[in-house]
């Protein structure tokens, strides 16, 4: 494996980055000479090798920037270390090439009656105006991101900045005007004489006006992604992604063509007298009736507007994203393209005038005027695109701890659906995990802490914490669990000073009215973690055999699941008054029945706090997530004494023969005492916060899971053990360790 040094900051040529990539073998590292700080690309940089690109000159920060109106396309196994990738991209607008419709031909006029009393012929109908043709030019081009990864990309201490805008859609063309209807022919002349008469001929009807042509639809605007499109495997380690994206607007629909007027009706033939003066009166002769006017043509419909392009600011992910260390999506923005306006419908044609009746005895009747046509319909406005500021997870998966604009989230597998708090959207269920450490590290005395979270099976629950003495919980319309809300309230106030008393108001989201409040009762309300606790009497495996947890001493050697002996570093105890607790279900012990996991596992009934994690399937699972109502069930008690066992490192010990986690310090040590009992009327702990702290603590023995494949496998193992009905003879009654109600 060799190091290839880039000495040319140009797009290509000897010593360029492109040349270095062409010469690199799998496993090589590409470095940059000290004078090369910027690479300006004029075309996409395709990387299909397994290489490392290291842009750190002084081994302390990113020194090299790749920039241009291009994207870096990756299909290989690539590591970028200490690099900056900066891109600005504007997609080209669509070209229309839509043709307007051709005007309809005018109808021919009808012929007059050529003989005495003969009717005229009908006027010809006007032809409809032609429809506009659909746009057949080039489609709008997408705004491209800084990086497009279809391979395996690891970004370490790197920055990706992308600004992209999608091209606008093309407008539709207009429809043509319809042809006017032809006029009806006039009737032939009549006569009256002593020897006879002929009435005047009837005028003919006018022709119908042609309908206007329809306008064509506008084309769609193009999408834009600012930061990264990931269809492969992306790892972000101590890196920053900033993306700004604007979707292209849809093209407007073309206007419809106007309808044409109907032709006028032909006039009736008139009658004339024939004979010498003073002759006997001539026979009377009637005038011909006038023809009806032709109907006007309908106006053409306007074309529909094109859809606006969607926009994703940070990451469009259909693959896998893993976050290691600190990674940030910062200052992302996304603006969806607006839909094109529908084309206007055209005015209708007027009806032709009726023909005038001919003179005679009697006069002929006038013809009826033609009816006006219908007005054309306005086209439908195109749908606006969608905007996702930070991450659009379209069927992909994400894991790790990610900071979005300064707020840290633990992203479990199956991210999803429309979380307005962080602008994450997609098609799968979402699990957000609260990170207690991110808030506890903030100083409420020097700045405002703002936190929002989506959690729980009861629906979205938004949490805003805006200072050291107050907080607000806002329920969604389908959130029903007040208990869950209270636990989130506690965990989210981790930054509050320990000597503050504060009130939390519960709001109705539809009205904003206060529907309840919770007030802290002790100065220790901010001791938020639900610790890993053993009920008194639990046998802990030591080098000297099983010893009741209350009889352990500092320095005792504890047998861990790996067989390594670890010394006891600290012991804590606490008596919990369950009968007067505001949320007793959060602190009632969970009983793991003897043999629940198989013969002798555990050897006796084991009582744990609800959040105490068991080690199974190579992960830690809080026992409350394994409750099945039979072999693992929550019990009730007036009070219970819980014990902490902290080793010199977080590990898994054997309690009644079952693998359980040891204590991990998450800030609640002062809520427990060593050597004497501590009792609080309303202890303010017992929540999911313990789970979260462990998720984000790098010192934990194993990953913690509350959902997913490992949890389902553990539940399946419990069900199999129940079917086998394997139980040892020795079972200690629950009352031996609990103060029963």
Automatic annotation (TrEMBL):
Residues 108-119 have a biased composition (Low complexity). InterPro entries: CalX-like_sf, Hedgehog/Intein_dom, Hint_dom_sf. Residues 533-666 form the Hedgehog/Intein (Hint) domain. Residues 120-129, 198-218, 287-305, 337-361 have a biased composition (Gly residues). Transmembrane segments: none annotated. Residues 102-136, 187-224, 271-305, 336-381 are annotated as: Disordered. This is Hint domain-containing protein.
């Amino acid at each position: 494996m060799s190091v290839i040094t880039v000495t040319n900051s140009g797009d290509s040529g000897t010593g360029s980055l492109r040349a270095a990539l062409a010469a690199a073998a799998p496993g090589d590292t590409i470095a940059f000479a000290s004078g090369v700080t910027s690479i300006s690309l004029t075309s996409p940089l395709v990387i299909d090798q397994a290489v490392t690109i290291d842009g750190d000159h002084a081994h302390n920060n990113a020194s090299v920037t790749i920039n241009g109106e291009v994207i870096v396309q990756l299909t290989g196994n690539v590591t970028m270390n200490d690099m900056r990738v900066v891109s600005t991209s504007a997609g080209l607008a669509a070209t229309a090439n839509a043709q307007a419709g051709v005007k309809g031909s005018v109808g021919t006029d009808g012929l007059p009656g050529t003989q005495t009393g003969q009717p005229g012929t009908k006027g010809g109908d006007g032809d409809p105006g032609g429809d506009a043709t659909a746009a057949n030019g080039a489609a709008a081009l997408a705004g491209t991101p800084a990086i497009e990864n279809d391979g395996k990309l690891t970004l370490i201490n790197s920055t990706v900045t992308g600004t992209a805008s999608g091209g606008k859609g093309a407008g539709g063309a207009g429809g043509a005007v319809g042809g006017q209807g032809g006029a009806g022919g006039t009737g032939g002349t009549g006569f009256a004489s002593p020897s006879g008469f002929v009435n005047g001929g009837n005028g003919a009807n006018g022709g119908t006006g042609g309908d206007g042509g329809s306008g064509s639809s506008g084309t769609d605007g193009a999408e834009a992604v600012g930061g990264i499109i990931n269809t492969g495997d992306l790892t972000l380690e101590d890196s920053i992604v900033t993306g700004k994206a604007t979707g292209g607007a849809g093209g407007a629909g073309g206007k419809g063509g106007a309808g044409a007027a109907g032709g006028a009706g032909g006039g009736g033939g008139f009658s004339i007298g024939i004979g010498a003066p003073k002759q006997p009166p001539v026979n009377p002769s009637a005038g011909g009736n006038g023809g009806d006017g032709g109907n006007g043509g309908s106006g053409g419909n306007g074309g529909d507007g094109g859809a606006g392009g969607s926009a994703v600011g940070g990451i469009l992910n259909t693959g896998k994203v893993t976050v290691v260390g600190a990674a940030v999506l910062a200052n992302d923005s996304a603006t969806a393209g607006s839909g094109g306006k529908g084309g206007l419908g055209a005015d209708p044609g007027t009806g032709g005038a009726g023909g005038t009746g001919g003179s005679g005895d009697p006069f002929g009747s006038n013809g009826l005027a033609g009816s006006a046509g219908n007005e054309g319909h306005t086209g439908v406005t195109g749908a606006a695109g969608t905007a996702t500021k930070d991450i659009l997870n379209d069927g992909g998966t994400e894991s790790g701890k990610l900071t979005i604009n300064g707020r840290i989230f633990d992203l479990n597998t199956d991210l999803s659906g429309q979380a307005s708090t962080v602008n994450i959207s997609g098609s799968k269920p979402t699990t957000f995990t609260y990170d207690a450490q991110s808030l506890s590290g903030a100083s409420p005395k020097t700045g405002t802490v703002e936190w929002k979270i989506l959690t729980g099976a009861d629906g979205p629950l938004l949490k805003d914490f805006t200072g050291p003495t107050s907080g607000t919980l806002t329920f969604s319309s389908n959130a029903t669990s007040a208990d869950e809300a209270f636990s989130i309230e506690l965990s989210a106030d981790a930054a509050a000073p320990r000597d503050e008393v504060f009130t939390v108001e519960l709001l109705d989201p539809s009205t904003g009215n206060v529907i309840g409040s919770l007030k802290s009762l002790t100065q220790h309300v901010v001791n938020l973690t639900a610790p890993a606790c053993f009920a008194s009497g639990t046998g802990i495996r030591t080098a000297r055999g099983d010893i009741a947890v209350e009889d352990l001493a500092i320095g005792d050697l504890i047998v861990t699941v790996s067989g390594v002996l670890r010394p006891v570093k600290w012991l804590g105890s606490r008596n919990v008054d369950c009968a007067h607790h505001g949320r007793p279900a959060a602190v009632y012990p969970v009983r793991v029945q003897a043999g629940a996991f198989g013969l002798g596992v555990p050897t006796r009934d084991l009582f744990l706090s609800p959040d105490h994690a068991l080690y199974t399937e190579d992960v830690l699972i809080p026992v409350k997530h394994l409750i099945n109502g039979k072999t693992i069930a929550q019990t009730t008690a007036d009070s219970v004494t819980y014990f902490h066992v902290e080793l010199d490192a977080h590990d898994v010990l054997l309690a009644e023969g079952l693998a359980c986690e040891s204590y991990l310090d998450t800030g609640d040590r002062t809520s427990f005492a060593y050597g004497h009992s501590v009792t609080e009327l309303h202890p303010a702990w017992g929540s999911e916060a313990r789970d979260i702290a462990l998720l984000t603590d790098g010192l934990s023995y194993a990953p913690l899971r509350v959902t997913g494949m490992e949890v389902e496998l553990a539940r399946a193992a419990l069900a199999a053990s129940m079917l086998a009905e394997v139980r040892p003879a020795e079972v200690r009654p629950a009352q031996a360790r609990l103060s029963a109600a």
